[in-house]
Amino acid sequence: MSTFDQLNLKPELKKNLVTLGFTDFTPIQKESLPYVLEGKDIIAQAKTGSGKTVAFGLALLQNLDVSNFRIQALVMCPTRELADQVAQEIRKLARLIHNIKVLTLCGGMPFGPQIGSLEHGAHIVVGTPGRIEEHLRKGTLKTSDIRTLVLDEADRMLDMGFQETLDTIVAQLPTKRQSLMFSATYPEQIEKIAQRVLSKPERIKVESVQT
Ligand code: ADP
Ligand code: ADP
Ligand code: MG
């Protein structure tokens, strides 16, 4: 039995982890996946490179209804570069699930094509706060089917002054959802955001990164 069999994951996801050459989960994945796959909210503190994208990516993909081409998961990142990386990583994890559409919505990119892609339908949006808020304001991003929210690198988003934007976005999401928050550090403002965004979160802290 492989390590991945111990979790209740779709067979396509398990099989793909092996194909990707993964032999075991990283510490943050081991600690967070059981909660995340149960549908619990988490706030996880772990450094860059610790494997957070897989920790939340598997949760998003596990819970997705592929036949429903509406946005079901929203991932927010502090920068376009990070959003692109996360989207790539999720696409890699999703390789054996057919027709999964992961869309990036970032600032500094033309608006028109993003609207076109949204009209076409997608399952997962990964983006930066400013642009996501703009799409919500314009009504081009619909939130009714969103069941999972991820705040990746939350401390950096605060450093960049995104707090109000995040609050505006979160206020428009369905309250019945799973929220996952990741941060490398844990300043007091992060705790405040956690209290507003998360519901009875599990707190996970991984001290050092396995190399
Ligand atoms: P973080 O978001 O914490 O910065 P990532 O999720 O981007 O980290 O992961 C960093 C790198 O480690 C990625 O290239 C990813 O493919 C790889 N990785 C993640 N989980 C595993 C694993 N269980 N085994 C091997 N490599 C992994
Ligand atoms: P905005 O509110 O300015 O549209 P977003 O919050 O959507 O910005 O995006 C923030 C991130 O998007 C930035 O950290 C940067 O990576 C990228 N970005 C935003 N605007 C630009 C731009 N004009 N040129 C290049 N990258 C940009
Ligand atoms: Mg990351």
From TrEMBL:
Keyword DNA repair: no
Domain DEAD-box RNA helicase Q: 2-30
Stretches assigned to the Helicase ATP-binding domain: 33-204
Motif stretch (Q motif): 2-30
Top-rank taxon, per record: Bacteria
Any one GO MF annotation of this record: hydrolase activity
Keyword Nucleotide-binding among UniProt keywords: yes
A GO CC term assigned to this protein in UniProt: cytosol
Keywords: ATP-binding, Helicase, Hydrolase, Nucleotide-binding
Similarity remark: Belongs to the DEAD box helicase family.
UniProt protein name: ATP-dependent RNA helicase DbpA
Gene: dbpA
Portion of the parent chain present: 1 to 211 of 460
